[in-house]
Amino acid sequence: MVHGSKHYEVEPAGYSSNQWGLIQKVTQRQTNRLVAVIVSHPRSNAIDSNTILLKFENSFLYQVGLNYEVSKCLEELELNVKTVSRVDYSFDFQYFNNGLHPHDLIKRFVRNAYQKKGKGKFHLHGNHNTDIELETIRWGSRDSLCCYYLYNKSKELREKKQKPYITEDWELNQLLNDKDVWRLEFSIKNGGGFKPDDDGFEYDDSVITFPSVVDRDVIPDLFKALVNKYFVFYNNPGEGDNTTRKTRLNEVALFQPFTPILKYKRLTNKLESNRMDKIFLKKLEELNNEVRKGREAERLNNAIGEIKKHFGNSRSLGAWAASKGIEV
Question: Whose CA is closest to 25, among 51, 44, 4, 46?
């Protein structure tokens, strides 16, 4: 259980969940403003009994001096950060740097007028009547290391709930007018991190972690690293062009030119897979199926299963294997 401090009051939320036995609310004593929610006492034996998760309220994260306020709160509550399980970075705007409207970017991407860096799945949300109105596009799944969105934030606030701390921020940045504000948002989870792009860099060679991830002087570099990895588009020359590599195409100038000094990358032990890895896993599956037909091959069958499981997981092939009906 976490106890209150000089500036923060901590009290039970009055409810619990299937995963956590205790949920507490953290408020500022002077303003009675909600700061964070803390969950503890995990019900599962698979989770360390001392584990505590703290989620800061979005409104708390909009303030100036964020790094100081977050660090002060954690210090007063006597909480030490072990890892950051999730952090969201967003950029609010009305047009890209080249004057392109976000809605037009989505339309050009969908009809393949723009090709996007990398590959993967995306999901669209919108409305149709006399015209098609695309409101949200999401790349990646909610289980991905990084899931990112481009969506109409003004419309979301109108339809769901107005949030004064957001509109006040827009007003300060001259975004509160008759035009809708769109948001580019990256949601990243534990397992990925930021590292220097080269040795000639002001940060040390360690991974950029807390408290740097909430430092407003560092956040722009973190956001640029995410844009450089995930949000780059190229003009598609169309049919008749033999260019196959996207990097040889002309990049769409969505942002002011910048040189990223950080890279966002997977920090787990999983390795990237290639075509030969998939062939190898398929052959293992075929062999395993043959072995299953025998009557005295249980030990070999189990051994092959363990090899498949280890290889599939180490090469990030879980989703691909599932789509092929291969157990890993």
Answer: 4
Q: What is the DSSP string of 89-130?
A: EEEEESS-TTS--HHHHHHHHHTTSEEESS---EEEEEEESS
Q: pLDDT tens, 20-56? A: 999 999 999 999 999 999 999 998 887 888 899 999 9
Distance CA 178, CA 57 (A): 28
Compute how many other C-beta atoms are within 10 angstroms of the C-beta atom of residue 184: 24
Q: Which residues of 12-42 are buried (b: 16+ CB within 10 A; e: fewer)?
A: eeeeeeeebebbbbbbeeeeeeebbebbbbb
Distance (Å, rounded) from C-alpha 278 to C-alpha 321? Answer: 8
Query: Which tokens belong to 69?
Result: 């306020």
The two most distant CA atoms of the chain are separated, in Å, by 75
pLDDT tens for 103-114 read 999 999 999 999
Note the pTM of the prediction, 2 decimals: 0.76
